[in-house]
Design goal:
The chain is largely without helices or strands. It is about 15% helix and about 10% strand. The protein has a domain at about 40-85. It has helices spanning about 30-35, 80-85, and strands at about 45, 55, 65, 70. The chain is elongated, with a radius of gyration of 33 Å.
Amino acid sequence: MGTPRDRPGFAPQTKAPDMAVQQNKVSKSRRNNRRAHDSLVAANPNECTNCGELKRPHHICAACGHYDDNEVVALTEEIDLEDDAA
């Protein structure tokens, strides 16, 4: 009868890549110590120097459009469309 390789249509099995298997159990204490630095930190908003609203540091104020005491973005409320059209 012969070996399975002698049969017609035989395709050798390809071995799947081995999965990683831990060598020793990781205790809850060691696992939690590793995760101790993964926590999220709270945001640190600053007050806008122009309007006093809270904003992210080093970002343009969403309320007034100022950054570092300079107007960077003109808000739509301040633009008068009738004067611009004329």
